[in-house]
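Exercise: predict the fold of this chain.
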Amino acid sequence: MWVDWVGHASFLSRTQELEARPDDTMAIVFIGPAMRDLVAGSHQIEAHGASVRELMSDIGRRYPELRDRLCAGDQFRPGLTVAVDNVIFATRVAMYQDVRPDSEVHFLAAIPGG
């Protein structure tokens, strides 16, 4: 069992989940509770792209309101952190990160403080 960043438990191992996915897999994008109303209540969606920028383009075609909530023009909005396969990237470089078909992508609100 593993737990995602918002505390949802999965009873399949990550390996079992990947093996169960079809050959035309897409990256999994996890959606936080504050944005689920933009994707019909889903806690995750799938998206195509070899980079975060391409992934956002695909998301924008299918869920334009979600892209608008995450991005201002061609950049992520300030206060947002992006994690790809458990590696966290600052918003200024996140769009340029590679994404594999089996990647997991999370959009996290920055936590103020120090």
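Check your answer against the key: Residues 25-109 form a domain with the Ubiquitin-like (UB roll) fold (CATH 3.10.20.30).
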